[in-house]
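Might I ask for a little of your time on a matter of protein folding? The record follows directly beneath this note:
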Amino acid sequence: EVHLVESGGGLVQTGGSLRLSCAVSGIAFADYIIGWVRRAPAKEPEGVSYLEIQTTTTHYAASVKGRFTISSDNAKNTVYLQMDNLKPDDTAVYYCAAGAGPIHDFDYVPKLFDSPYEYWGRGTQVTVSS
């Protein structure tokens, strides 16, 4: 059975930092693209970042580039999202997701719990106060 378990969310002030973790089990970790997708109230989902484990290729949404960093600890089958200089617009539920396929398919995530990602976590809330 596949599990993606997020942790590390919380409440932080503008300009602060958080590190999200995603512990992955039940899949061949190195064969997947692991990403973070967020959903803010009354907004469409946004693919924040992804990491192709095998090649270490990364991608960031323009809204977070330069502030967020995605990384992995392959020995722990865990992906991290370091979020610095947080802004109120970063407030959302952040979901970890895993998928396999052409890498650029993952640049756009139209819906939660749907392609291009095959597996999803339950999400962790990030709230940035102004």
